[in-house]
Amino acid sequence: MSKELEFLKRKVSREILARKEAERILENKALELYHTNEELRKMNLNLEETILKRTEALEKAKSVAEKAQKAEQQFLANMSHEIRTPLNAVIGMSHLLYDTNPTAEQIEYLDNLKSSAKLLHSLISDILDFTKIESGNIEIQSKPFNLVDTIRDIQKTFELKLDGQPIEIKSNIDERIENLVIGDELLFHQIFFNLLGNAEKFTKVGSILIDVKMLTKLNDNISIQFKIKDTGIGIESDKLKHIFENFKQAANKQHLTNRSTGLGLSITRQLIELQGGSIEVESELGKGSCFSFVLSYIYSDVKNKDNKKAPMLDSKVRFPDLKLLIAEDNSMNRKYIRRVFQKWDISFEMAVNGAEAVEMAKAEKYDLIFMDLQMPIMGGVEATSEIRNHPNLNQHTVIVALTASALSEHRNQALNAGMNDFVTKPFTPEQLLKVLSKYFLEQSNNPNIMNSENNSAPSDNPEGQPSKSSDEPIIQIHSYHPKLDKAYLDTIYGRDWEYAADMFLTFLEDIAPNFDRLMPLVEAANWEAYYQVAHKVKPSLQMVGLPALKEKVLTVEVMAKTAPDQVKLRALTVEILMDLEAYFPILKAQLEFLQSKMVEL
Amino acid sequence: MKGIVFTEFIEMVEEKFGYEVTENMISNANLPSNGAYTAVGTYDHSEMYSLIGELHRSTEIPVPDLMHTYGLHLFGALAKAYAPMLSGLSSAFEMLQSVDRYIHVEVRKLYPDAELPHFEIKDVDEKRMVMIYSSERRMSDVASGLIEGCLAHYKESATIHKELITEDGSKVKFEIVKN
User: Fold this and answer.
1) FRET label pair with A561: which of A370, A525, B121, B134, CA 20 to 30 Å apart?
2) Dihedrals φ, ψ of A181, to 5°?
């Protein structure tokens, strides 16, 4: 027992020693910890101070940088805008110079002047777009639009532009895209227009293929791939990865003519990415390039409108024996005139410049010559002098000037050169009709046309009463759609259904497609052309009873001429197009009604 | 060598052999610390050799067996004392892999002067694991006890093969194969 006690004693004394040792160690540890903590606190304080100082410095630097960037963007935007105003004057004046009977050499200089001014214009538009994207000022709209139509319209624009060149534009659009999509039509237009423009710019021969394929359709979400493949000069593989970067271009020295800001593809990429899409490019030098981008839209349940045109009315042969010569270089106008005269069954031949017109005038007798004043190689005034001053088959043929200029001195110049009359461009079919009837038609032969000339009340009212008379309310209600300007339509057409039908048909077939040109022109900031299109379509709106829309077009026409503002014009144009879109079914119904009335009569 | 290694050793000897064996071992070992160990202290490792040597002399149990038994005991004691360190580990292999990588790193933060053995993991899959023990203390038998203790802690069963890499036992390969 005492042994055990002894062991316990020893153990306890050991434990006491151990405890004391432990206390010593712990005391030291506590002290150590205290000092460490103190040091930490000091470090923390220093750190906080440093952080505060650094943060302040960073904020200062950031605000300076932001201010500088903002100022730079504002400067770019202002400058771009400011440069455009005098530039529009340069472009406008260069157009007017064409009317001053320039020599062939001067025309060459003018052509250069015009194309350089246009290039400068597109560069500035690029810079404006770029600054807008950079400053985050682009708003993405979400509205239903007809994707297929938009693509076809752009294709048409380029087909016209490439008219006569050995380049074919083919398109293959997925038929499963049957409904309107909801998204930003303007952005899409700009993207597609840029890429097609790019393909067109670098392709001299061959084809441009548009391929549109639906990738997925989940619930109401549709994902679509757009490919634009050309047979152009292609891009070197080491440059390929840089072409979407700002200010980078792949074009080599052989293509110095393709000058631009190098922002086009960068803008296109950013516009695509802004909408959550992506763009890729494949290319082989000398073989061509293929740009493909994917965008997602909301798939509406509204079908894309049936775009088939109403069947052509059998146009009455009014001028069966006429043969006309038309000298006009502008392909758009050529197509337009061709279509109008073809519809009227009037035979005609076309010359692309004054010299050709003179040659043709020597070879064949025409009943009337329409002569554009501004043409390359030889202008209309010069050509008229040639025809009038040298004995030939057409020395005394009626020559009618087609001119975009309303200036009286131009008119006088034309008349002095021996022209008989003039039609101001952009002209409507009825203006051409007026001229033709003036020279070739007896008044009694076609009262309809005379009506159009006088804009008078119809003379064939059976009762000899004005159609607005109160005893025929039912006919009036059923004659013109209440959304159209009935009073005006009654005044100019009365119950001459045929004339009214012809006017509505002309509007739907020939005038309405011109509205499609407005948007590309806004994007191209081609205010001169925009002005001309607006000017051309404006009077026709009145003729189909849309005076309010006519006023809107007048507004944009004036704005395009005097103080073009792309943002405002874009918005106003969209408004006009949407209005027109809304009126389309009404106008079509009106035409059908008028045609049915004609059958009754 | 950390104090907890000594205090746990004394406790085990007391538990398994009684006070007399314990006191004789301590007094015969002639220790500089006189055996007054505290878990928070640090002592020369030679004291551990002396204690084990004395225990072997009085009990006649081979040293490797004593060391192995001690390793088994030590794992349980460490697992209890440092339970939070084991909280995220759910299997023996996971635990063994984290000894060098995590546990010893943390131990060094607590005791910057600690001299710890290395447990290098060579090869590991679901069933098998190779671990290289290296320490100048040459106490791989304690290590094998610890490994066995670890398996027992996670209620896992495995066979442990031990193979000397260096003759002096400062580097030893353990192959642990799950049953």
Assistant:
1) A370
2) -105, 155
Strand A206-218 vs strand A143-145: parallel, antiparallel, or unpaired? unpaired
What pTM did the predictor assign?
A: 0.37
Instruction: Express each pLDDT in A530-547 by its tens digit.
Output: 988 888 888 788 888 888
Let me know: does B39 contact B3? Beta carbons within 8 Å. Answer: yes
DSSP string of A195-215, one letter each residue:
HHHHHHHH-SSEEEEEEEEEE
Average pLDDT, stretch A309-315?
32
Phi and psi at A337, nearest 5°, equal -65, -45
| B26 vs A: CB within 8 A | yes
Residue corresponding to tokens 């759910």: B90
Nearest by Cα to A209 from A291, A153, A144:
A291
Q: Cis bond leading into B112, ω under 30°?
A: no
Whether A14 sits inside 8 A of B26 (CB atoms) is yes
- The shortest CB-CB distance from A26 to any of B26, B36, B40 is to B40
Q: What is the DSSP letter of A80?
A: H
Radius of gyration of chain A (CA): 36
| Nearest residue, CB atoms, A18 vs list B23, B27, B38 | B38
Name the nearest CA neighbour of A226 among A165, A261, A181, A284. A181
Task: Give the integer Cα–Cα distance in Å for A182 and A304.
Answer: 12
**CA A94, A97, A99, A104: dihedral to nearest 10 degrees?**
-100
Q: B76-113 burial, b for 16+ CB within 10 Å, e for fewer?
A: bbbeeeeeebbeebeebbebbbbbbeebbeebeeeeee
Q: What is the rounded CA–CA span in Å between residue A340 and residue B108?
A: 96
Q: How confident is the model at residue A478 (pLDDT cuts 50, 70, 90)?
A: low
First CA to last CA distance, chain B: 34
- How deeply is A570 buried, as exposed, middle or buried, from its count of CB atoms within 10 A (0-12, 13-18, 19+)? middle
What is the interface size between A and B, counted as CB pairs within 8 Å? 39
User: What one-character DSSP code corresponds to residue A444?
Assistant: G
Say what the pLDDT of residue A315 is: 35
**Cα(A546)–Cα(A191) distance, integer angstroms:** 32
| The length of chain B, given as a count of residues | 179
Determine how β-strand A368-372 pairs with β-strand A398-403.
parallel
Residue A230 in 3-state DSSP? strand
Is B23 touching A (CB cutoff 8 A)? Answer: yes
Q: Are A332 and A288 in contact (CB under 8 A)?
A: no
Query: Is residue A60 very low, low, confident or very high in pLDDT (cuts 50, 70, 90)?
Result: very high
Residue ranges in A345-484 assigned as alpha helix (H): 354-363, 380-389, 408-416, 429-440, 447-454, 473-479
- State how far residue A43 is from chain B, nearest Cα, in angstroms: 20
Cα–Cα distance for residue pair B55/B65, rounded to 1 Å: 11
Kindly determine whether residue A22 and residue B23, on different chains, have CB atoms separated by under 8 Å. no
- DSSP H or E segment with residue A469: none
Partners of A600 in the beta sheet?
none
What are the angstrom distances between the C-alpha of A15 and each of A359, B9, B26, B32, B73? 130, 15, 13, 15, 21
Q: Does A303 touch chain B (CB under 8 A)?
A: no
Chain centroid offset of residue A383 CA? 34
Tens-digit pLDDT profile for residues A373-426: 878 788 888 898 888 877 788 888 889 988 765 456 667 777 888 888 888 765
C-alpha count within 13 angstroms, C-beta hemisphere, residue B30: 1
Kindly give the pairing relationship between strand A347-351 and strand A323-327: parallel
pLDDT given for residue A248 in this prediction: 56
In SS3 terms, A508-566 reads as HHHHHHHHHHHHHHHHCCCHHHHHHHHHHHHHHHHHCCCHHHHHHHHHHHHHHHHCCCH
Segment (H or E) for A183 = strand A179-183
